[in-house]
Amino acid sequence: MSIKTIKQLKEQGMKYTIIDGETYFLVEDVKKNEDYLIVDLTQVIHKNGIDIIHEKYIHELSDFDKMIKRTLKKED
């Protein structure tokens, strides 16, 4: 994920924490933004009863993926 996107997620109010200098996002918040994010949920870490995921496992959908997703939603 690009630094710009990480900054945008933080600015949107997505909850995160920093552990040993690395940024981790709360899985609960990430799932709320599934419309434009791809997340590798096999990489979830359970820390003190909270599910978190490292920023490197969160990616923004490509423009093509966003277009396909919008098209499929119209058909529903």
From TrEMBL:
Protein name: Uncharacterized protein
Species, as recorded: Chryseobacterium gallinarum
